[in-house]
Amino acid sequence: MRKYLLLGLLCCSLAAYSQAGRSRTEQRERGVVAVIPFQWYGHHLVIPALVSGSTDTLHFIFDTGAEVTVLHYGLMEKLHIQGRKKAGMSATNDLMLKVSTATLNALYLDQARLPFLKVYLENIPEFRKGTLAIDGFIGVDLLRAFIVKIDYARQQLVLYRPGADIPVTGATQRIPFRLSFHTPVITATIQLPGGQSLSGNYLLTTGGDYGILFNWPYTEKHRLDQQLVTTGTDKVQDLFKELDYINSSIPAMRIGALQLQQVPVSYCKDVNDDSPLMEIAGAAGCEIWKQCPAVIIDYARKTLYLQ
């Protein structure tokens, strides 16, 4: 009896090992490099990371609108890194500021590795208050290295190797995008309170703490500040200055086949993210994208998938 029991356990173990092996093989076939759980910091998506040479977990806000990787200046000594030559970093109204930079030997995100990552050293005390201290921001550097899936339903970031075949369902929308400098830009149509529809180009900013943030030149051109009913105001701290947002809402927004109702919107006279290549209507932030169970950004193929 004992012999048969041991034999049964051995068979179960072999079956489990075989199944685990198949799972690992399937994962490799799917091209998954890392699965990273995230947590919310307001409307910001925060992922854990490790810097080579340190065992301390850092917390980065992931934002597809972050064209450079930012690291809190106060971590230099702790992480044993040295600031090097200053480089330009764009701010609101096309203001260019010079900040120190450094190169990390590697940044680890679960099993994913970003080698020789250039970071811009910036003091961000306003993001280091409360129970969760934010250590930096990352966006385009991650998009360039991997196909990125933001799984809002499972609250995890999935990184695929470049060129991987992404498993999509029949309900998945495939939306091409262009680039404004390094930020993805999609086309969308909004409906104003008076019934007028406007199509425009919107920056894909998953870390934006808003629904739509209209560009001020676009706001002036279409007199949105005269048509939209103010529902409130907010003082918002960006990396360089405090901004005054005026909040409102619009009846609808359409991105491909995705229809959104009663969309929160904001505008600010200090926000000008226009591009020499195209007119930018504004930025589509977290309140837009989290309406989807999952969003996949294939930066190399300039394709956005909405699931």
TrEMBL record:
Protein name: Aspartyl protease
SUPFAM superfamilies noted in UniProt: Acid proteases
Pfam families: Asp_protease_2
GO BP annotation list: proteolysis
Record's keyword terms, sorted: Hydrolase, Protease, Signal
InterPro entries in alphabetical order: Peptidase_aspartic_dom_sf
GO terms of molecular function: peptidase activity
Signal peptide start-end: 1-20
